[in-house]
Automatic annotation (TrEMBL):
Name of the protein: Uncharacterized protein
Native source species: Mollisia scopiformis
Cellular location(s): Mitochondrion inner membrane
Major place of residence: mitochondrion
Membrane topology qualifier: Multi-pass membrane protein
Keyword annotations of the record: Membrane, Mitochondrion, Mitochondrion inner membrane, Transmembrane, Transmembrane helix
GO biological-process terms attached to the record: mitochondrial electron transport, NADH to ubiquinone
Gene Ontology CC terms, in alphabetical order: mitochondrial inner membrane; respiratory chain complex I
Keyword Membrane recorded: yes
Amino acid sequence: MASGDDQYHPKDAVKAAISGTMITGAAGGLVSAIQNTLTKRNVNAWGVFTKTGGTIAVFAAVGGTYEFTRFASANLRERDDSLNTAIGGFLAGSVLGLRFGSTPAVLGFGALTAVVLGAYDYTGGALSGFKKNNEIDEFERKQELRMNRRRPIEQTISELGEGRGIYGPGYEERRRERIKEKYGIEVPAKS
């Protein structure tokens, strides 16, 4: 166990499970209401709970299982990393697979959810890509990147040659001499 800021602080798994159950249960209620609305037969308003209420239960169970398992495994392992998310994802996916009633579905949904959630957490938990440090000014960051990647002009000229906006020192004199030798035209020097 490391000292200082690296020390693990236990988290309340039960509180997280209740919160996760409530949030995903509410989302399940919304999905159940949509399912109830789209049924062919006219079902009363209580059909959200009676006819398609299993959706609410599955959503709530998945959310509660995920949150509880994630924090409980973090507390047991005393580490907060992507493996906790993968373990929670496996059990949550297994709960989702229970609806199909077969072992391959339980294991398959669990493995798929574990891989997706574990990889998402491992890569930083953002779909938008790498997040920049907001404390650094954007102009200064780009200037630093330009200076970091800058090559000497001699190396650039040796690799690409002169022209196309890349001119080394003494280019104008060399150009005047080439034109005079090839065409016999005297090019005046710029002031």
